[in-house]
From TrEMBL:
Residues 503-566 form the Transglutaminase-like domain. This is Transglutaminase-like domain-containing protein. It comes from the Bacteria. SUPFAM superfamilies: Cysteine proteinases, L domain-like.
Amino acid sequence: MKRNLYLEKLSVSLIFLLFMYSATAEILVDGVYYNITNANTVEVTCRGYGNNGTDGWMYFTAEELYKGNVRIPSTITYNNLTYSITAIGNDAFAGSKLLNTLTLPSSVVAIGSGAFSLCNSLSSIQVEENNIVFFSENGILYKKNPVSLFYVPRNVQGDVELNSGITTIPSSAFQYCSGITSVTIPDNVTTIADGAFNSCTALTEINFSNTGKLTTIGVQAFGKCSELMLVNIPASVTTIEATAFADCPNLTYLLLNEGLQTIGKMAFYGCESISFVQLPSTLLSIGDKAFDLCKNLATVKNKTNFVLELQSETYGCVAKYATQIIKDDEVDLEPIKDSIAAIVPSGSQVYRYGYNELSETDKAMYDYILETLCRFDANKAAGSIYHRVDFDFAGQGFTTDLNSLMYMLTRIYRDVPEMYILNSIPRQDEVTGTYYGRIAAVHTPESYLNELVRIDTICNEIIANITDGMSTHEKLKVLHDGLIDWTDYGGLASAYSGNIKGAFLEQKAVCEGLSRAFLLLCQKAGIPCLYVSGRLHTNTVTDTWENHAWNYVQVDGKWYLVDITTDGGFPGQSFYTAFLRGQDYFDANYKLTNTAGVNENTNNGIYSVLPKLASTTYEEKITGTFDIAENRNVKVWYNSTADQVFAEIKDFSSKDYICEIYSLGGHLIEKRRIENSLTQIDMSKVKGLLFVVITENGGNLYTTKVLK
């Protein structure tokens, strides 16, 4: 029989076409669209509105298609065939505005362009272990070998710490990430590329490394970061490109260090809050309009060879609005001192326990001393480790002696946590008789201001979680939880572990540092608080008492104990063990004398007397009906037996309730439906403090009470 070559060729062609079609066919499995890329693999593909992309349109996913938390599997089965998912195709999730989190399998080795475009609610991308190409940290997507930043979800929130292996922050990496508040630049980063953090409207702090390799800050890298307050350009940076910090209206403190060579065109354009700038001696050029519309830039310190003139638009308009140009051999630190004094309030501006005990005359002297200390000069004499701060008591109409001055300085040191630079032991000049205070010489006005601004920024971030209508009890929980989240117990090797620099900037502190940090937060939040020291009963078996520090706070006219170290610093301790406790708890666990038997709080008149604590733990009643959907995080303190727990809860005859009992670690111990009596709850399962939530059937929080 004669072969029909035409039909054979046609059959081969049809088979080839069918194979080609199957290799690019779009399929739907478990709500996800895929393209079959060969006999064994598929890629996640785009499915939605727009056309097929032939005229350059982006092919968006339908907004409702991908939403919430999506996990892509490593394999799928379709028509009895199993495929491995090896790629995320171009624009695969683009336009999925309701997508919150995405988990990628270990099998994915390629991600196409625009895969996550306009996923405005995406806050985290996770990658399963053993992926050979990608990995994730803190919800951010990276590539391996070498490590590089691949994609940042647009809804990432809070403080961002990047992987230490990256060397570049790519163009537009964080652009429009409106939820980030601070970013730490790793030591190995050499370039922050164009637009990397552009329009990060909640960004308040950039943590550059003093030992890093950063050399270049790109065009619009931090442009339009409207909440940015402080920028300390490290000495490694040689180039700030055009518009790098343009239109940052709240940028107040700008520090340009030696090493900087080039400031690009319009680099700080429109940064209207800058009042002082120092041009380093290494600076070679300033681009056109670099400082234009910096309308409050009144003082310029010039260490360069540039010939600057007031109100001139030369050299990037740096002196266009200036009223003073300081040459390199001139010193004028008054603007910096003014800023320090503005950040450290007087005794009349915030609640200071030691200040409030004083007479009006002594209050005036207290404020004079504090103001003078804020305006210190870096005047360390040869062989000294301190700067000297002279007090003109006679000129101010005050009389004192060295001993009284020492206790006044100690009172200030206890009252004012910002005064961590102070040595509270004063001196008297043997020749002139002038009394003077001493500031640790490791600090200069410039460095101290830099630290204060950074501390202030962190405090404001914690306090920002306080909302209108919160009770004092609720505000204190915000401060308590925020500080514990920010600072770890430790840092014994650091000189700053006992003060707010250690607590806030190094994020490690011992009890003294934690207590001073909590005092500062309370002062800024307007809550009466004081620093207390003595001993803590740390081991009941050996009856061991160790020197310790904690706080007293005032709530509803009564004083209570708060111990941040106990709640956050000791392994195995419950989160609210020492929160708003009364005299009974104090008597069992604390003493006001140190191991030498000295009461540091009232010794020789530091404080006249400490406030009397309330007899028992603070009790808060939440009354009325609350929508449980809006109060899902409400958990209430209870203690001991069922009778004590439920003594205040009446009338269960006509309602149906759900009772949930939690451990302090947040673990559900028991959940029961109750009708007439709460005594059905088995309280023998619970020892010590616990949380109880009572919910009326139907979703309303019925009533709660905090008991001892």
